[in-house]
Amino acid sequence: MSYAKVLCVGLVGVTGHVVEVEADLAPGLPAVVLSGLPDTALNEARDRVRAAIVNSGQHWPNRRITVNLLPATLPKHGSGFDLAIAAALLGGSGELPLAPLEDVVILGELGLDGTVRPIRGVLPMVAAAARAGISRVVVPVGNAAEAAVVPGVRVRAVDNLHRLVAYVRDGAALLEPPPRQAAPPAQGPDLSEVAGQGLGRRAVEVAAAGGHHLALLGPPGAGKTMLAERLPSILPELDDDTALEVTALHSIAGILPSGGDLVRRPPFQAPHHTATVPAIVGGGSGLARPGAVSLAHRGILFLDEAAEFQSRALDALRQPLEHGRVVINRARGGTEYPARVQLVLASNPCPCAKPAGDTHCECTPLARRRYLSRISGPLLDRIDVQVELSPLRAAELMDSGESNESSAEVAARVAAARTVATARWAKLGWKVNADVPGPYLRQARWRLPAATTYGLRRRLDQGSLSARGFDRIIRMAWTISDLDGRDRPNADDVNEATHLRTREAS
Fold first, then answer.
1. What is the 3-state secondary structure (H, E, C) of 90-103?
2. Residue of 218 and 48 predicted with greater confidence
3. pTM for the full predicted model
4. Which residues face 325 on adjacent strands?
5. Distance between CA 47 and CA 139 in Å, rounded?
6. What pLDDT was estimated at residue 505?
7. Helix-then-strand count for the chain, H and E
8. With contact defined as beta carbons under 8 Å apart, do 417 and 209 qualify?
9. For residues 462 and 470, what is the distance between their CA atoms, to the nearest angstrom?
10. Parallel, antiparallel, or unpaired: how do β-strands 154-158 and 342-347 relate?
């Protein structure tokens, strides 16, 4: 037999596609030709596979070998095809009967000594195989726990090429995935550790309950970073569907923790203020890699010292915040990554970072305006909650904190508010108030009475509030009413939402 075929999976973004790996061995000068839009790493598989086969004690066929990856129009990248190519070559040369590998997806990178090394993106690859009706996969032993997360798929693992050959030729057993271990309880900073800042605590609670974006402005030491870092501690755990999305993204990026369990806690990404546009939204040569905004999908993207970020990097977030996804086009094709995040900004009021009115502050009013104007108006217009924190007083700082609410107490109210919102919007496919389109809230069924929104309408007519800002305040008012246990927002809820939006809260 001079022809053989096995199955593998290729990734484009987070979408997996089943790939047929064909091998044809013909008379002629010995050579290996790889076709099907392989990238550089995949082209180099010719040398890796040859060395792995020889060093595993198998015969290398000295013939003209053509390896084709179908569909040929789909870009292929990475080293995850190595093991499938080796199996196809051995099958085509007659070394292996490939009947045991029929309708089996094979994934793995080969070392020169024949060891099978773990690869990135195994979880979305196995999920793609399951969607295609394939129920058996062979993966590297280092990825077995991760692959076993996908339901309805029988996962077996290999640690070297020799084990796969022994399984196909002699029926030897493959390795089983390790038993799943219970995830350790989530540990992290607690909201009770924040001194004072009642306004900031309320802003964080409203943002968590409604999924609203948040901006915290104030002098150093006011607690901006502390509040932002404790936001994940009051968010509900991810459900099965969203946890699978997040885990797949982390698998592609190679940052999935060992153990193979789903990521249940909302992710928290805090890139440095020197981060570039590709680092924030994704990019790179060839097919683009996910950036911080996608790695924070279903979680928090925290930009500390936001005014120090490049203006281009900040403005690149405007479209992802609006649409919940990032589309990056490159010469080799376009890539789409999900990016539904809560954006949290923190910034000092001026370059010298002294409170307004401090006798040591040398910044003019113009300098202060210029500094904050680095965060563009269109980006700020997409931030629902915008509050200015005051410097801490000595009495607040020296307080023991025993009276402060813990993250668990606040998380209970947030969970209850989200349950109410989910029940309200479930039939329409929305889970939090921040997801609800503004036009829908202006329909007769959900429109608030004119007396309730009088002040808000006046601001809109005067031009001090944009239409987008109007809709976002209405969404926040619904969140506040959910937190306080009311069926519909009243005038006080709208006023509080307006203050949280316009930085007028005291």
1. HHHCCCCCCHHHCC
2. 48
3. 0.87
4. 338
5. 21
6. 45
7. 21, 18
8. yes
9. 12
10. unpaired
